Amino acid sequence: MRIQIRRSVINGILDYAKIYHPREGVLLLKGKVKEGTIMVEDIEIPPLNVQGESFSAFPLNMLPLDFSIVGTAHSHPSGVLMPSVSDLNNFYGRMMIIVAYPYKSEADLIVIDRKGERLNYELIEE
Of 113, 83, 35, which Cα lies nearest the Cα of 121? Predict the structure, then answer.
C-alpha cells in the first residue's frame, strides 16, 4: 500500500499536538483510497473527543458514516514514538499517525499499520 500525505496535514497534526500538550490529542485522517494508494488530504477533530495526560479517545458510534476517514492521528506527550498496546487495540481505519513530543518536525512522527509496523509515506507539497 502506497501512502501519500499532504504537508498541510503533517503541519496540522504537529500544531494540534503542541496546542494540547501535555494532554494527548486525537484527530481523524481524511482522504481517499484509489488503486492501492491512500492519499491523506485533511484532518478533522472527532466528535465528543476527550484528552488526558496519557490517553485520548472518541466514541466510534458518534462518527458519521464517512468513507473519507482513512485513519487516526494522535500525540504522545511522553515523547515515546512507538504505539502502545492501547493504540493497537483501538486502531481505526487503514493507518495511524503518532507524533511525539516535542512535535517539531517529521522526525517526531511515525505512520503505522494495524500491527504496529512502520509504514513509509510520501510527503506531498502543495
Answer: 113
Q: What is the mean pLDDT of the chain?
A: 92
Enumerate the domain spans of the chain. 2-124
Per the structure block, which three cell numbers stand in for 77? 506527550
Query: pLDDT for 88-103, tens place per residue?
Result: 999 999 999 999 999 9
Contact 29, 97 (CB under 8 A): yes
Three-state secondary structure string covering the chain: CEEEEEHHHHHHHHHHHHHHCCCCCEEEEEEEEECCEEEEEEEECCCCCEECCCCEECCHHHCCCCCCEEEEEEEECCCCCCCCHHHHHCCCCCEEEEEECCCCCHHHEEEECCCCCECCCEEECC
Task: Please state which CATH number belongs to domain 2-124.
Answer: 3.40.140.10
Task: Please state the pTM of the whole predicted model.
Answer: 0.93
